[in-house]
Amino acid sequence: MTRKSTLILIGIVLFGLLIRIYRIASLPMYGDELTMVYDTYSILKTGKDSTGQAFPTTFKMGAGRPGGYIYASVPFVYLFGPTEWGIRSLSILSSLGIIVLMYFLGKKLFSEKVGLIASFIASISLWDIYLARGGFEVHFALFLALLGITLFLYGKFIPWAISWGFVIFTYPTFKLTLPLMFLVLIWFNGIKNTIKNKLFVGSLIILALFGGFAVKETFKGVSEQRFLSINIFSDINIRQQIIQLVNEERNVSTLPIYLKPIFYNKPLQYFRILLDNYSENLSTKFLYIRGDGNPRHNPGEWGMLYLVELPLLFIGIINLWKKEKKILGLLVAWILITPLATMFLNDAHGLRNAFMIPPFILIASFALFNLPKRTAVLFVALMLIQLIFVLQRIYFLAPNKFANFWSGEAKKTSLLAINTDKGKTITLSTKKIDNIEYAYEVYAKIDPNLVISQYGKFPKVYGNVLITDK
Question: Is the pLDDT higher at 213 or at 367?
């Protein structure tokens, strides 16, 4: 890496940092952030989570939340307390790490110049900016997954295995995507070239140990609790709709009765839903126009990628097909693998699909590299124009427009209760104020031992403040 490239990369990282941290605390912590930051605070103070479990791998809050983000946030909660900065610092650093890794990955696959372009596009990536400004576990998991891929391609197998091992204890969808990505990497790297490395077997042993522990958590029935409750197969409404549709089609069809179960059945209908969900996660609407519609994942209210990245996608694919077919196979497979873990859940999702950010960036970077200089500058200028429009929405519109999505009322009420005369009894209702039971504990920095002693009980008594479920 030349001195010039180093200075450029540092400049890119600093630029990325500035646009990510500006007014980052203008949005209060939403429900998941509140429970994560308090669990982190409780672990820091007592060695137990807010339910009283000692150093759990999977946390009860969040319906079976992997502990990776919480444990990695301990240093930041120690420095900043249970605050927005405390829970979001890890996500910000993950973003900076991704920017740097995109340079090394682009350099490995293509050239140093493509690596610098990739790091720049990562620094202004709308999708990554959205993730960096919230305490999203998937962002840390994305950094670890990307770190593992980069290490693998550079032949650093032991660190690769450790990095990927931690991923599966940070965000659950990677339990499906990483094994598939491993097969793609083996194909890309060459089976013989990979196996002949003496450290490769050791790395597989490390991954097996992590995997075994993950399976143990699964059989304990806690790590997959959230997925089991929200996937399409557990959705009662979907099940009833399918049963009704199958019965209706069997009654209307004139096929012989013994053939009807073959053509009209529940498995076929579920397959169609899965296919529809899969395609929605790769749709132009989700990726380039409107995003997933969730203001927490998309406060800019545009697509997850820049509009001009759509033509760059086609330009990049054409150029890769002509010059780098194997790399094209790697990147396309990477993109296509990602929705396989998200298609079991309804609607496209900005968090669960985050794993496809790097390959889209790499394709766009290769496209820009192969364009005439003036044309490439035009594309970058269009990105920056859209970036300005999106950033003004993030900084100045979203904090007011989407305050309810970020538990704004819970924060406002908690701070009011904290500053009220201690001689006056205050009652806060979970029925009237969403997430107030977590928000007050966080903003008032309630002693974790007191919170643990009242876990699962109502009313909760914190001095002059009562929190009821009525």
Answer: 367
